[in-house]
Design a protein that fits this description.
Distance between the termini: 68 Å
Radius of gyration: 21 Å
Strand content: 35-45%
Structural class: mainly beta
Order of helices and strands: HEEEEEEEEEEEEEEE
Number of strands: 15
Largest sheet: 6 strands, antiparallel
Length: 161
Amino acid sequence: MRSRWTKIAALAAGLVLWSAQSAVASDTVGWKTVSTNSNWYCGAYVGHSETTVWNSEWMKFKACTVVNNSGGAQAVLVVQNSHPTDGFYMEMGRVVFESQRGGDVWCAPSNLSAGMTRGCYGPTVPVGKCYYPIVPRVELKINGNTDVAYGRTDARTGCDF
């Protein structure tokens, strides 16, 4: 009888441990227009290696942190297509930001027409007032190749001084 209860307890503990694995995947979000202001802190544009031809970086992307005075912050993957006539298919985008607070997001596959700029916005997460959030990392996949860009280190949420 004791052996039976031991087996049941072991099985139950195994099920609890298996189901307790944290989910790291986030929702997939669409692309939106981008309008920056003084609350945006963006890294430099990076030319995507799959669209760089003859020293022309047609698809450029960067990581931005948007802060507010309430102690919140979010990261944005900003993509710009500077090609005069051709669009590009973005297979995948990703924002990695304040992961423990839920700031990560996957960006939906999308076409980006010539001359357009769009952003994939992560959720706003509470980080605290007068806080320097973690530097965001963004990824953009085109033609099976994923390139990475990083944001700035000087973004800070509002202070009550």
